[in-house]
Design brief:
The chain has a four-stranded mixed sheet with strand order 2-1-3-4, covered by helices on one side. It contains seven helices and four strands. Helix 6 crosses helix 7. It is an alpha+beta fold. It starts with a helix and ends in a 5-residue tail after the last helix. Strand 3 and strand 4 form a beta hairpin.
Amino acid sequence: MLMTDHDMLRQELAPLMAKYEQSRSALIPMLQSVQAKYSRISPFAMQIIADMLGIHPVEVMGVVSFYSFLNTEPKGRFIIRLCRTISCDMVGREKVARQLQTDLGVEFGRTTADGKFTLEWANCLGLCDQGPALLVNSKAYTKVTPESVHAILEECRQTYGVHAQEKKEEHTI
Ligand code: FES
């Protein structure tokens, strides 16, 4: 039987609905799951999630727009979030920021033309005694220097081939 995108997404999210006993607590995990698989949360996905939870799509949209870790537009395979809060600011955040921009050729808030990297600001990551701190997706890097920026980006580039292979098989709901 041919499965529509609608059916496929519902099927993918069904285990989360079951885990959270059909409750609204499933909302964030469902959004995270969609984003992890499709790199963004489309209006279509928001509609399906709203239907499954029995809530209005505007409510889902409100949650997506509230959390900076959720996005409706595709971002790079590697989302780099540099802390801009005071402790990191005092120990060299600005130099690290400049190095990231130079190496990637994009400003904060932008994605590189090849779609590999998105550069974003973050507020305190809870690593204040080890700043400057940044996240690459969910992995934390501490005491980052302009020199270590090169190594961090190289580490991403070396793992990109593997992830790129995985992404080819994904759908674009
Ligand atoms: S101020 Fe940067 S991690 Fe807290």
